[in-house]
Specification:
Number of helices: 2
Helix content: 10-25%
Distance between the termini: 16 Å
Structural class: mainly beta
Radius of gyration: 14 Å
Largest sheet: 7 strands, antiparallel
Number of domains: 1
């Protein structure tokens, strides 16, 4: 069964605006848009810069989620805190059988996040090379890449429509 269609926003990478503030070893942002800046910063260091992004948005309109993920298996599930709907991120449903999903929480011990996914593409292609799961804690603002993995999905638009 295919996951339900949800609204999503795709944005192409531009220059780094970096509204993020570094405090100690962490970065903090003020909005979900800051997640894209953090994914781009992180992905450049990973040598697969992110090209396109999608913000997670539940079919109920919710933007806050619990996150369970196994980046070794390439699988993540978000659960809306508003309606409690669970939704595999990207093509995660293909890998859930072998995944051991961990519950993620912020360093402030909250477990609710805004989630944005970024993808790096192969040169001269619309096929995904690498996927990044970025999160921002709305309580303290901590913003980071919580998981990333090699992803061989054909057609980034379809993959991001499943965020």
């Amino acid at each position: 069964m295919r996951p339900p269609r949800v609204s999503f926003v795709v944005r192409q990478a531009e220059g780094e605006s970096m509204a993020l503030r570094k405090r100690g070893k962490w970065r903090y942002g003020d909005s979900q848009a800051d997640i894209r800046d953090e994914i781009l910063r992180y992905s450049k260091r990973n040598e697969y810069p992110s090209h396109y992004y999608a913000d997670a948005l539940c079919k109920c309109g919710g933007r806050l989620f619990l996150l369970r993920m196994d980046d070794a298996a390439g699988a993540a599930i978000r659960k809306c805190v508003g309606c409690h709907d669970e939704h595999p991120i990207g093509d995660s449903s293909d890998f859930l059988d072998e995944a051991e999903l961990d519950v993620y929480e912020c360093v402030c011990l909250e477990n609710v996040f805004e989630i944005t996914v970024g993808v790096s593409l192969y040169d001269d292609s619309e096929d995904v090379r690498w996927l990044y799961v970025g999160c921002r804690c709305p309580k303290c603002g901590l913003t980071g890449v919580y998981g990333d993995w090699k992803n061989e999905f054909n057609g980034y638009r379809e993959l991001l429509s499943r965020v």
